[in-house]
Write a structure and sequence with these properties.
Blueprint (H helix, E strand, L loop, with lengths): L2 E5 L5 E5 L4 H20 L7 H13 L7 H36 L11 H15 L10 H23 L5 H25 L4 H8 L9 H19 L1 H7 L3 H6 L4 H23 L5 H13 L3 H25 L7 H19 L1 H4 L1
Antiparallel strand pairs: 1-2
């Protein structure tokens, strides 16, 4: 396991582990399992957590279920896919946020930095305003459009950054700002063509996991899974990039190729998350920083633990969104309530590094 030399008490040099410890992973997985089970047992429907637990035990052991067929359908066709989808989306956004922070060496970078949110919002608005009824489609047009729009926004930012002649991260960031502004303007123009759809558009943009089965899970899982594998494999290279491009090149790493690979994987995961959940803010900023505070500053720790912590965080947030009031709160509102104060703390702590 890799170690980093640091100054200890009395001027002594001590070694600090900066790799991923099995105990850390097991603790994170245990917390995630507990959170997921609790979210499955307790919901808006008055089923009783004891009866739902007996249903889960019956499914595992082959025993007798205390639930009726309708009640069992609520558990396995509504609650279970929603809990799993919340975990997938949270893992995607948190790990992508960690990857963006590593690539841009900016603690305030988030998964929507390069125009993914603006592209998804524009595409979703176009579908809401112009597309035919979703019932005529084999797969709903809104998730497909959001997925394509998010990838298109990131691709346009990358192409603009490359065509401007710059090769650094600052040029790419400026390109992302320009593309996001343009796509947002297009979205606003399209909305004004049919103002009756404004409520539907903004409901989607506030985020939510309105699942009616397992379709959304199967839609997002392959993309998020593939992206997660790439990001975890590239975590060590993000540590090398933090030393600077010259130092990374001297160690045999090609910074440009690493950034491209990480950005493609992170953008793919973000696009898949946006396609099934709308725009959910703060997860990609808050969770990596919590992991950094609790588990260490190495991206070999931050990226995989952000996958686990992001899944647990969004499962909790979604559970609050669907149970705290008689009606359901938009998920993005819940994450904003939790994330905005933490974002202020992150901004204050990062103030010296951003000057």
């Amino acid at each position: 396991m890799a170690r980093t030399a640091v100054d200890g008490p009395g001027g002594r040099t001590v070694a600090r582990r900066n790799g991923l410890r099995p105990r850390t992973v097991l603790t994170g997985l245990l917390v995630l399992l507990v959170v997921a089970v609790l979210a499955l047992l307790v919901g808006a429907g008055e089923l009783g957590w004891q009866r739902v637990l007996a249903e889960v035990v019956a499914q595992v052991s082959g025993g007798h279920s205390p639930l009726s067929e309708r009640e069992a359908a609520i558990v396995w066709e509504l609650r279970a896919p929603r809990v799993l989808l919340a975990g997938i989306v949270g893992a995607a956004l948190a790990s992508s946020g960690a990857a963006f922070q590593g690539v841009f060496r900016n603690p305030l970078a988030d998964p929507y930095l390069l125009g993914a949110a603006a592209g998804a919002g524009m595409a979703a608005t176009i579908v809401v305003v112009f597309a035919p009824a979703a019932a005529t489609w084999i797969v709903g047009p809104l998730p497909l459009a959001a997925f394509a729009g998010a990838l298109g926004g990131v691709g346009l930012s990358w192409a603009l950054g490359r065509s401007s002649g710059g090769s650094g991260t600052a040029t790419l960031l400026l390109a992302g700002v320009a593309v996001a502004a343009f796509l947002t303007a297009v979205q606003t123009f399209v909305q004004q063509l049919n103002t009756d759809t404004i409520k539907q558009v903004y409901t989607w943009m506030l985020g939510g996991l309105n699942v009616s089965g397992w379709r959304e899970v199967w839609l997002a899982c392959p993309y998020v899974g593939a992206a997660a594998v790439v990001l975890c494999l590239c975590a060590r290279l993000l540590d090398v990039l933090s030393l600077g491009d010259a130092e990374a090149a001297s160690l045999g790493v090609r910074p440009g190729r690493v950034r491209l690979l990480v950005l493609v994987a992170a953008s793919l995961a973000t696009a898949a998350a946006v396609a099934v959940s709308g725009l959910i803010g703060f997860v990609g900023i808050v969770v990596p920083h919590i992991v950094r505070l609790l588990a260490g500053s190495s991206y070999r720790v931050i990226v995989p633990m952000s996958l686990i912590a992001g899944a647990a965080f969004l499962i909790v947030a979604d559970h609050i969104a669907r149970t705290v009031l008689p009606g359901e709160l938009p998920l993005g509102v819940v994450t904003a309530f939790a994330g905005a104060p933490f974002f202020v703390l992150v901004l204050r702590s990062a103030r010296g590094r951003l000057r």
